[in-house]
Amino acid sequence: MMRIHFQGYMFIISFIIGGGAPAMGVRPRDMIIRNPVVEFATTDELTRLAGYGEEKLSTVVVAGSLLCDAFLRKNSPLESRPIPGALVGVSCRHTSVHRKTSKSSNWLIKGKTDQYGDFHIDLPSHLHAIPNMEKRCFVRILGLPKKSPCHQSALTNYKHKRIELLSSSGNGIRAYSSHGIHLTTHKRPSHPFRGRKTHTTHFVTN
Q: pTM of whole model > 0.85?
């Protein structure tokens, strides 16, 4: 079937390049080989010439939310607030095996949280076939906005977060989630006439 399809659009290319219909009794393969433009073109180039594009056959999305647990006011309880504008990434380790050799590669796909602290990262197609993705891909926090109470100090004790498969449909769509990622700081707002208090940070997940 693929061979018939390939010969079909090769026939179209030859028709366009040759400026007309092929002569009777000439096989498409003979006509293609005699055309130097087609003969030395790669498969990708022939595909573009025929008007065919690369079709995305599957979709893999990793989602989650990032929150900061902090004392926003003096003597107030610990409050949880979303962290918008944070830089997050999905880190995947992929090992490709070719005959008797294997090669490991590390990939990092970046994204940002929205105003609600949520992020949705669409993984590129070459990572969709990674087996046991829950064990090979993790969510990492790469940077926080300076105005966040948790800021960079909350990242000192942070560890990567595993992902979990939420859904998988027959049309090639898979959704993974890291769920809620909480960065917690125990720093309280200091009195304007007093020195700063020391603080500790913790990493909590839902």
A: no
Locus of tokens 């219909």: 21
Q: Over the stretch 61-109, which tens digit does the pLDDT of each residue have?
A: 999 999 999 887 777 788 899 999 999 999 998 776 655 666 678 899 9
Task: Please give the Cα distance from 158 to 203 (Å, whole number).
Answer: 6
Q: Using 50, 70 and 90 to split pLDDT, how confident is the model at 50?
A: very low
Average pLDDT, the chain: 73
| Domain boundaries along the sequence of the chain | 2-49, 59-205
Three-state SS for the chain is CHHHHHHHHHHHHHHHHHCCCCCCCCCHHHHHHCCHHHHCCCHHHHHHHCCCCCCCCCEEEEEEEEEEEECCCCCCCCEEEECCCCEEEEEEEEEEEECCEEEEEEEEEEEECCCCCEEEEECCHHHCCCCCHHHHEEEEEEECCCCCCCCHHHHCCCCCEECEEEEECCCCEEEEEEEEEEEEECCCCCCCCCCCCCCCEEEEEC
In three-state secondary structure terms, 120 is: strand
Domain covering 59-205 in this structure, CATH number = 2.60.40
